Design the sequence.
């Protein structure tokens, strides 16, 4: 389905992503973990064609993505939705309009300038919002919503694109634990119910462990781990993060239950 | 894990959909009406203007390019004279630039005083803030050319009336821009200086100016660009400089078009040069602010 072959991105003399190879043969929920600056975001941005690869290829269902230009490239972007850490909504427009932005690739510039979306699209948008539990917020401005709600609007925009792949760049990094849980559960449900592939950059290990079928670890631009959550032992995690023996998973956790755990962790830390 | 899709909505989805659709219909109606009114006004306004035009817009349209074509063809025939003519008019260019520079300098000083006296939190006499604000409003509301015409009537033609006219307008315009910058200045240094017994002028000079200087300089440079154009235009009403020569050259008509072309080139080159210079310098001022 999705094949990433020797994908490399250089900024000047610095290599952000170094010959990454990933093969996804069936829809999955994939978590990418690693320190800040490990190249996680750059990898996702190349997948969405927000930035160009220096070398290497991305292939999706036999179509090479890395060489796409113009309309073909925008069409790929509409099939490969992206969710951002800071939500990246249009703050002064209402929630439904923000969700309808997911259809921009199918609409003419003229129609979108005057906000002329078909009624069926508007109904679909509100149904998606209802699925994410925020239908009551439909007429409000996006900026009036809380962070967790805004991120769900962003997910709704992604779903409106009806994509094969959803990329999520640190989707919960600016949310509190409760909202983080709701957002991650939504992403998981989208994967399970719709069979879409979700690739999420996560900066907490336990989130990756809990929600993902497959975890990819990156360090200094290289993929250093690719396996199931159970294969991700504390030793491997220390390697990925380049941490010493004092590293414990609880230190990076955002889960509420972690509060009960420290005693046990301390015992062998 | 499925509980998120069931979180109890007070309204049913159908209600939300229909009420949102109603809202969208209303918005489209208003938008459509606004667009219609705009188009009707534009078309009718154009027709009125065209009817009142002496020659008629469509007849005149063809002839818009006749004059530049005449100038260009004549200038091209006499292209060998151009460097000599440009040298001849160079002193006039310097006069135009001088008018702009002096008026920018005086206007910026006036604007600085007006802005400090007219900004809430900084003003020496808070009750007089409206007076200073209205003064700067009036100074920038009156076009340079009106002040210049009045002064030329009183003082006679020459660069001095133009300089005063531009300086008055500049002081008003910069007073407004400066005061907007000063409103965002941090007041804590002022309080610190006041606690040492500093006078109002000392507080402004040491507490406010260092904060706002890069922005003020940047605005003053922008104003200098504008003033070069203004001082060239004022030449047309007899204020000297390049504009005066240009009017004479144009008024002579065919036969002197090469002079007009030489002046155009000088003026255009100068404006482009100072635009580039000042935009580069302004960029550096605003970017380098943090360091």
Sequence:
């Amino acid at each position: 389905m999705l094949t990433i072959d020797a994908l490399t991105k250089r900024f000047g003399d610095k290599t952000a992503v170094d010959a990454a190879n990933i093969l996804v043969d069936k829809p999955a929920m994939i978590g990418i973990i690693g320190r800040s600056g490990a190249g996680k975001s750059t990898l996702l941005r190349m997948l969405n064609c927000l930035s160009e690869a220096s070398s290497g290829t991305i292939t999706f269902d036999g179509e090479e993505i890395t060489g796409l230009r113009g309309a073909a490239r925008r069409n790929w972007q509409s099939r490969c939705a992206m969710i951002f850490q800071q939500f990246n909504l249009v703050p002064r427009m209402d929630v439904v309009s923000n969700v309808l932005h997911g259809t921009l690739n199918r609409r003419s510039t003229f129609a979108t300038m005057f906000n002329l979306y078909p009624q069926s699209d508007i109904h679909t948008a509100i149904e998606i919002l209802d699925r994410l539990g925020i239908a009551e917020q439909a007429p409000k401005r996006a900026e009036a919503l809380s962070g967790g709600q805004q991120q769900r609007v962003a997910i709704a925009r992604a779903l409106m694109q009806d994509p094969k792949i959803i990329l999520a760049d640190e989707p919960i990094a600016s949310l509190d634990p409760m909202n983080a849980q709701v957002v991650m559960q939504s992403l998981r449900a989208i994967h399970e119910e719709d069979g879409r592939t979700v690739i999420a950059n996560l900066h907490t290990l336990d989130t990756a462990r809990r929600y993902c079928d497959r975890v990819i670890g990156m360090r200094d631009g290289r993929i250093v781990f690719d396996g199931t959550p159970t294969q991700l032992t504390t030793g491997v995690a220390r390697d990925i993060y380049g941490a010493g023996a004092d590293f414990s998973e609880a230190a990076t956790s955002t889960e509420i239950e972690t509060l009960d755990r420290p005693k046990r962790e301390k015992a062998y830390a | 894990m499925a509980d998120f899709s069931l979180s109890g909505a007070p309204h049913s989805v159908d209600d939300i959909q229909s009420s949102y659709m109603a809202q969208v219909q209303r918005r489209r109606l208003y938008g459509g009406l606004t667009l219609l009114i705009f188009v009707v006004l534009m078309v009718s306004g154009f027709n009125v203007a065209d009817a009142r035009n002496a020659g008629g817009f469509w007849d005149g349209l063809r002839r818009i390019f006749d004059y530049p074509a005449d100038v260009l063809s004549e200038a091209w025939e006499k292209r060998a004279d151009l460097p000599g003519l440009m040298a001849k008019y160079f002193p006039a260019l310097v006069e135009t630039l001088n008018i702009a520079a002096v008026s920018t300098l005086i206007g910026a000083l006036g604007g600085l005083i007006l802005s400090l006296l007219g900004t809430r939190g900084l003003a020496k006499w808070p009750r007089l803030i409206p007076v200073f604000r209205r003064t700067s409003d009036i100074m920038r509301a009156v076009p340079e050319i009106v002040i210049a015409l009045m002064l030329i009537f009183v003082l006679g033609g020459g660069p001095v009336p133009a300089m005063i006219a531009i300086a008055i307008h500049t002081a008003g315009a910069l007073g407004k821009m400066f005061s907007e910058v000063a409103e965002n200045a941090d007041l804590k240094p002022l309080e610190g200086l006041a606690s040492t017994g500093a006078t109002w002028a000392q507080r402004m000079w040491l507490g406010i100016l260092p904060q706002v200087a890069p922005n003020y300089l940047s605005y003053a440079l922008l104003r200098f660009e504008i003033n070069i154009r203004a001082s060239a235009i004022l030449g047309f009403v007899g204020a000297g400089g390049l504009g005066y020569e240009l009017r004479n050259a144009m008024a002579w008509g065919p036969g002197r078009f090469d002079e007009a072309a030489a002046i155009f080139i000088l003026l255009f080159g100068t404006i482009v040069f100072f635009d580039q210079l000042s935009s580069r310098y302004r960029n550096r001022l605003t970017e380098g602010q943090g360091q």
Observations:
- The domain at 2-268 of chain A is CATH 3.40.50.300 (Rossmann fold).
- Residues 116 and 209 of chain A are 43 Å apart (CA to CA).
